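Subgroup meeting minutes
Present: P.N., E.W., G.H.
Scribe: E.W.

1. P.N. recapped why we're keeping a running log of single-chain structure predictions: easier to compare across weeks, and new members can see raw inputs and outputs side by side.
2. G.H. added today's entry (280 aa).
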Amino acid sequence: MKERLETFDISVSEKTLRRDFKIIKDLGYDLNPNNSHVLSIENDITHEIDILNKVKDRMNSNSLHQFITDENTLQSPPTISSVVLPTILKSITNRISISFVYQKFNSNLKSNRHVAPLVLKEYNGQWHLLAFELDSEDPTAKVFGCDRINSLSTHEQFAINLIDENKQKIIDFKNTLGASMPLSEWEPSKPYFKTPITETIILEVNKGYLNHLKNNPIHYSQRITNEVENGFTRVYFKLIPNLELIKFILAQQGDIKIIEPVNLKKFIREYYKNLISDIT
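Output recorded in log:
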C-alpha cells in the first residue's frame, strides 16, 4: 500500500498507515484487497469514523466541561460518566449487548434496560444511542439519552440479524440532527412532509458563519462547495428534515438561507412567518 501511494506522489509513513488501518478495524470493518491491490471497504463508515473521533475528543480534550449552543454561548453539557461513551462504542463495534439503569427525561422515574446497541450519535453536545430492547414486551429500536444512562454493564453478543432487521432505522437515525422527531410526524408540518425520507438540503451560508461550519461540521454529510453568489456559499447535507434542523436554521437567521428542499422552505416561511425576515 505504501508503495502504491508513492506512485501518486503521496508520502505516508508505515506507522501512520498501521494506525489508520487499526482505527478502521477497531470499528469492526475488514480491509480487503481487490484485483488492483487496493484496499477497499464495502461499508459506508463515514458516520462511524466521525463518532470515533468525537468520542476520542471528548475523552482527551480539556473542553469537556463546556460546549457551544446554537446561540454560541457556553453552557455546561449533560453529565455523562467517563466510561459510558467508550463502552457503548466498543459494544457496538463488537456486537455486545449492554444493560443499564435509565432515567426518564424530566422525571425521577428509573428503569432497568437490556439492549443491543446499534448506533451512537452526537449533536450540539448531546449524545444519543439507538438500541434494540431485548427484554421488552414490545421489542423495538428506541433512542436513549446517554446522559441518563447509569450502572452500565456489558453482556453477551447479540444476533447479527438485529442489525439487518433495523437497517432502515439505523440509516434514518444517522441521517437526522439530534433526536427530535421527523417533520413528517409533527402535526403542524405533516401537510408538507408525508414520509421521513433523507433529502438533499441545500443552504447558502455567509462567509462569517461558513468558517464556523468548516471548523464545526453539524453532520458527517456536510459538503461545502465552491458555489458562491453574493457572498453566500452553498453547503449541501443529506438529512431527514426534523425539528432540530429547523432550530439550527432559525438560530442562524441572516447567516443562512434555505435553497432546497422547497417544502422545507415553504413550511418555515409559513409557520414561522412572524419570526423570520430573510432566511428564505
